[in-house]
Every structure is written in structure tokens, then in C-alpha cells.
Design brief:
Helix content: 40-55%
Strand content: 5-15%
Radius of gyration: 28 Å
Number of helices: 25
Number of strands: 15
Number of domains: 4
Structural class: alpha/beta
Largest sheet: 9 strands, mixed
Length: about 675
């Protein structure tokens, strides 16, 4: 392997990394008990080599050679596939391969990928492969080496996980676009989502039920033999997907977007900042008019429908066929530009366009990133336009739905499952059946869809024109459909917040909760003393940047409203999963920067929920290993992750939230003031 100069490693180094890999391999390793035990010293030497290897930056070639010698020294004890002609080898060597040695070999391959990616100049370097690492181990380091042992590809595949997959999910790099969208899964959340998808096992379809900005879709690495789908209620955004995923439309889109950027950039470079902002706002208003025209032309009342088990496209799609390519491109550019200027709370408004935000837009429109986005979106099999909160038929439609690869045998598979195997099955059909595999009963397995649901959060206002907010019945119906699909062989990842955060209101964070272990009592009273009331006489944050002092009583009313909303979230989200999907798991994602304790524990999770800090979670119907910490490469902020069963997490919410049906009221502490 050629020596390179490396950049600072992007992942957590040393023993944390090694311990995580041990957990991850053990999770997939179904035959750990058969592994031959090492001596205490051998085990210590191997695991220390893992730490040294991962920490290496300069003279890593010597450490690779040390790994080579140590592995061969131990393999010689097991007569493991010797290269000496005529000498027998142990047919069960793979099962007996020491577990810690397997970890070391994984890290060798992992570091090969990372060293290549971190090289300041990749020209002339050969991209590492898993086979390359195995060949290195099976080749003598020098001519004086008397013997060497060959490792097969099963070293990486026998337990169903590869170093390349592990490298990719732990070195997450999401596409960076200038446009922002409320609830977008980027940074640490995109990292966590991509990680969870890797644990879903064999899946045939991936369906994003609430597409939004497609940031979550972008976060998921492409995998061969999976069909990808995306759904979105607003047709203005559906058009954006169509333009980005279509090569011809995409080329026109990039041209127009860069024309806008270059015009504004030229005005900025001339030193006329005032005119640049004025021109930027003019174009924003022009784009906003396009958005409103499209929303009028493509009403939310027109949705795809499921009729006789077939999806019938909405009248919106019929109207869409009449649009010119130019109009489609203009609408996609309008979407991008509008969502490049965002105020507090996630809204995109012309008031967010100032000199600083305009300069940021001009400097972040990067063709390389958009080309990656296009490549991601081009894998879409189809784009749907349905309302997933009132018509969840996409979940029903994709449960046990054959992907393109197996579509020709879909009827045959269902017939075999129902006990009516036809007399004649072609060789091509037999080959596809072998690829599909069987379930525990010996029949062809069900087709599996991974549903990703990032719905608007419960109590989100302004979701559609008919309802003020997301109501409990809509959320319960969505959860029920996902759980039912899971019972039929599919999987789901459900994204939400553990509680409605103060960031979603007009007040600053309620720092007063810092000094309260349990601000809500079981009898429904909120216990606050005089100082706490004073702290809540905070500020109403207006859109124009001014502040308005509010009365304590109205402040208390807002707090009670917030706690009641959290009560609804507990009952209608987490308790629903606990009731219907007892084997679900929760991944809690929390920012650690700014806190003295950088390790996640139950107490930290509880404190953040009590203080109404944003606590994002993913709920799955399958097990996984906690991800490593994530350091955002742009902001430098550190994020941590904690896994719970759904029952464990509901217990934490029990301790942090009020969950009875009694109404809230405020009562004083001793010497305090009562607000009824």
C-alpha cells in the first residue's frame, strides 16, 4: 500500500471506535460461541493493535506490517488455509477464527478506505478494496518470511457485514445544498437515519412517505437491488423532484439557477450591496408568486387514489403533462431560491434576505453538490402525490410489494405461499426464487419495504387547508398502518420529537426548568416559585427582531398549553407504539456541545426533556447498535445517541411528563404566587 499524507481523522478514534466495532460485529455474529478463544495476552495484543492502527496518521505502513505478522502468527496455531502446497487446511477455520482477530482485520480494511479518502492527493493511488486487504495479508511482507496464510472473502461476508458498509455509515457525508426546509434531516440526524437504514437487513423497496426537501432521501446511501420511491403532498415540491431526477430538466434547472446566482454575485462584486439585496428581494417575490400560482393550479384536494389495488394518479398529474419544460424548471428554481432564506422557526420569508444571507446563497450554490443530488434522485422508480395523514394507502400498497427485480414472479410467489405451486416453473423463475430466498416455513419470503415516516409533528399548525393542525386520530392511523405493515414483514423508521420544544413557540428556552427535577406533579399541578415566575416573564420574539414584555399569567398559560401538547404526544405517539409494537426501539439524538458531560446517559436525556430542549428520536421495529458520536464538520458541534426499547423510553417520558387526563393548573410553592 502506498504511503500518503493524511488529514485529521473524521471519526472517533481509539478504544471508543474499537468497542463500537466489537458491539456491531457481535450484533451480526451468529456463531460467536464457536470462535476459538485466545489467550489473555493474544487478546490484549490484538485489541491494542486495533487502537494503534486506527490512531495511526504517518507511519501506518509499519503498523500494517505489524498487523500482518501478528495475524499470521496467530493463524499458524489454527492451521488456517496455509499456502504451502500439499498441506491440509482446517475446513472449519472460518467458524473458529478468533473474534478479536476478525475485528483487527475489519479495522485494517476500514483504515485502508479512510486513508485513501483522507489523502491530500489521491492521484496515482489505487482505491482500496476488501480483496486488496486480504491479498496483502496473504502475501509475505518480505522474502525472508517462511510462510503466509490466505484469508478468503468469507472473512468479511460470513457474518453478513462488510468493512465497506461499516466505513460508509460511520463516515457519513451528506449533500450540502443552500436551500433549507422545516424538519429537514441533515447533519447528525441524516447520519443517524443512514445508519439505521443499514441495520434494516434485506429490503426490496425504500419508500419515503413525507418527502419534504428530500434531505432524508439524500441521507440514505444508494444500495443495489432496492427500488426507491418518494411521496409528497404539495405538488410544487413534487415538480422539484421531477426536475431534479430528470437529466434533461436538471440540466435546464442548473443553467437557470446559476444564471440567478451569477447575476447576484456580479452585483455584489461591484460593491453595490444595497442594490444586490434589492435585486435579491425582487427575485424572491417573483419566485413566491410562482409558488402561489402553482399552489392555486395544483390544489391539495387532488390526490393519488388506490382503486382495485392499483394507484390512480391524481388530476394534478394530468394537468402537469401540459406544463412546458421551461415552466417546470422555473418552478423548481423558485422552490430552491425561496428555501435558501429562512427565518427563526423554519419559515422562508423575504425578510430573511439580507446581505449576509445573500452572500451565503451565492457562495453555496455548488454544481458538484447538485450533481450528487441529481444522481441520488435519478434512482427514483416513481414519485407519488398523496396525503399520508388522511389516505395512508401507500403503506398498504407497498406491503409485500415486489420490486422491479422480482416483478415477473410476484404472482408465482404468492401462489406458492398460498399452497398452489404450479406444475411447471421455468429455469429463469427458479433462479429468481433462489435469489429471493425462503422464510422459516420454507416458502418464498415476503417482499420487504422499509417505510420512512417523517410526518409533520403532532400539533403542527398549517399543514393543510382543511385542518388547523395534525390531530390525534391522523397520527394514530399512520402509526397503526406502519405497525400492521411491520407484522407482515416490512420495516419502518418513524421520526419525531420526544416532546414539543420551546423552540417551536415564541418564547426562549424555559431555563427555569434547570432547577426543577420534576416540574409537573401527578395531580396535574405545575409547581413554580416566585423566582421561576419571574424567569418566565421573558420575551415574545417578533419577526422584525423587536421584543415585547409579556405578563406572567399569559406566560403561564402558554407553558400549560405546551405541557398539554406534550401530554398528547406521549399518549398518541409513544404510547401507541408501546401498545401496538412492543418490540420497537428508540434512538435518541441529542446535541452534547455546551454540556460538561459528553457521554449520553438516562439522566441527560431526562434533563433535556424536562427543560424542553429539542430531543429528536427515531423509532424502528428492528434492533440496532448505537451509532458513534457525530461531530458536525461545518459547525463543530458534537452529538450523541442513546438506544432504548419503546418500553424503556416510555418509562423515561413517564418520569418527565404529565400523562393523566386531568387539566393543568399552576399552584405556588411556599411563599410563592399562585396563578390559577
Amino acid at each position: 500500500m502506498a504511503k500518503t499524507t493524511t488529514k485529521k481523522p473524521t471519526r472517533i478514534a481509539g478504544s471508543d471506535f474499537t468497542d463500537h466495532l466489537l458491539d456491531m460485529l457481535e450484533f451480526c455474529n451468529t456463531k460467536v460461541a464457536q470462535n476459538t478463544p485466545l489467550s489473555k495476552q493474544e487478546k490484549t495484543d490484538l485489541l491494542q493493535m486495533c487502537v494503534d492502527l486506527y490512531s495511526a496518521t504517518d507511519d501506518y505502513q509499519q503498523i500494517y506490517n505489524d498487523c500482518h505478522n501478528l495475524i499470521n502468527s496467530i493463524l499458524s496455531k489454527y492451521n488456517y488455509q496455509p499456502r504451502t502446497p500439499g498441506k491440509p487446511h482446517n475446513p472449519n477455520a472460518m467458524q473458529n477464527l478468533p473474534y478479536e482477530m476478525k475485528v483487527l482485520i475489519y479495522i485494517m480494511a476500514y483504515r485502508a478506505f479512510e486513508l485513501y479518502d483522507n489523502a491530500t492527493n489521491k492521484k496515482g493511488l489505487v482505491r482500496p478494496t476488501q480483496d486488496g486487504v486480504l491479498n496483502f495479508l496473504s502475501t509475505p511482507v518480505n522474502s525472508t518470511t517462511s510462510k503466509c496464510y490466505k484469508l478468503s472473502r468469507k472473512t468479511f461476508t460470513y457474518f453478513g457485514i462488510s468493512p465497506k458498509v461499516f466505513y460508509n455509515i460511520n463516515n457519513y457525508k451528506q449533500i450540502q445544498l443552500p436551500s433549507k426546509y422545516a424538519g429537514a434531516k441533515t447533519g447528525y440526524l441524516g447520519y443517524a437515519l443512514n445508519y439505521l437504514v443499514a441495520y434494516a437487513g434485506t429490503i426490496d423497496n425504500y419508500t419515503d412517505l413525507f418527502g419534504g426537501s428530500a434531505s432524508a432521501f439524500m441521507a440514505v446511501m444508494k444500495t443495489n437491488n432496492i427500488d426507491y420511491y418518494i411521496n409528497e403532498i404539495e405538488f410544487f415540491i413534487v415538480n422539484y423532484y421531477h426536475v431534479i431526477s430528470n437529466k434533461k430538466l436538471y440540466n435546464g434547472y442548473i443553467k437557470e439557477l446559476f444564471n440567478v446566482r451569477d447575476e447576484l454575485k456580479q452585483i455584489l462584486s461591484s460593491g453595490n450591496a444595497v442594490y444586490a439585496v434589492e435585486r435579491g428581494k425582487y427575485f424572491f417575490n417573483h419566485c413566491d408568486k410562482i409558488r402561489k400560482d402553482w399552489q392555486d393550479k395544483y390544489p391539495l384536494s387532488n390526490y393519488d387514489q388506490l382503486i382495485n389495488e392499483n394507484i390512480i394518479q391524481s388530476p394534478n398529474f394530468q394537468q402537469y403533462q401540459l406544463e412546458t419544460d421551461s415552466d417546470k424548471v422555473d418552478a423548481a428554481v423558485a422552490y430552491t431560491y425561496i428555501h435558501s432564506f429562512q427565518v427563526t422557526g423554519g419559515k422562508n420569508e423575504v425578510g430573511a434576505l439580507n446581505l449576509k444571507s445573500l452572500e451565503k446563497f451565492c457562495n453555496t450554490v455548488n454544481k458538484l453538490e447538485y450533481d450528487k443530488f441529481h444522481a441520488h434522485m435519478a434512482r427514483l422508480e416513481h414519485i407519488y402525490n398523496s396525503d399520508m395523514l388522511d389516505h395512508e394507502f401507500l403503506i398498504q400498497y407497498f406491503t409485500n410489494k415486489a420490486p422491479k427485480k422480482y416483478r415477473s414472479i410476484e404472482q408465482l410467489v404468492n401462489a406458492i405461499r398460498n399452497g398452489s405451486t404450479p406444475d411447471a416453473i421455468s429455469d429463469q423463475e427458479k433462479n429468481l426464487l433462489r435469489l429471493l430466498g425462503k422464510d422459516s416455513t420454507g416458502k418464498p419470503r415476503l417482499f420487504r419495504t422499509l417505510f420512512y415516516s417523517d410526518s409533520p409533528y403532532l400539533n403542527t399548525k398549517g399543514y393543510n387547508e382543511d385542518k388547523d393542525n395534525i390531530d390525534n386520530s391522523q397520527m394514530k392511523a399512520l402509526i397503526y398502518k406502519l405497525v400492521n405493515a411491520s407484522k407482515k414483514g416490512s420495516h419502518f423508521i418513524f421520526s419525531c420529537r420526544a416532546s414539543k420544544s420551546i423552540e417551536e413557540n415564541t418564547f426562549f428556552k424555559l431555563d427555569a426548568f434547570t432547577d426543577l427535577r420534576n416540574p409537573v406533579r401527578s395531580d396535574g399541578n405545575v409547581v413554580l416559585d416566585t423566582q421561576v415566575i419571574h424567569d418566565y416573564e421573558k420575551i415574545l420574539f417578533n419577526g422584525n427582531g423587536t421584543r415585547t414584555i409579556v405578563e406572567a399569567k399569559s406566560s403561564m398559560d402558554k407553558i400549560i398549553e405546551l405541557l398539554e401538547q406534550n401530554n398528547a404526544i406521549y399518549h398518541n405517539v409513544f404510547n401507541e407504539f408501546k401498545t401496538h409494537a412492543t418490540n420497537s426501539y428508540v434512538l435518541v439524538c441529542i446535541q452534547l456541545s455546551g454540556f460538561s458531560n459528553k457521554n449520553m446517559d438516562d439522566y441527560q436525556v431526562k434533563r433535556r426533556i424536562q427543560r424542553l430542549y429539542p430531543v429528536e428520536v427515531f423509532i424502528t421495529d428492528y434492533n440496532f447498535v448505537e451509532p458513534l458520536k457525530y461531530k458536525d464538520p461545518v459547525t463543530g458541534k458534537l452529538y450523541g445517541f442513546k438506544k432504548y426499547t419503546i418500553s424503556e423510553f416510555c418509562k423515561i417520558l413517564d418520569e418527565c411528563m404529565f400523562k393523566s387526563d386531568k387539566p393543568y393548573k399552576v399552584v405556588p410553592k411556599s411563599g410563592g404566587v399562585s396563578f390559577q
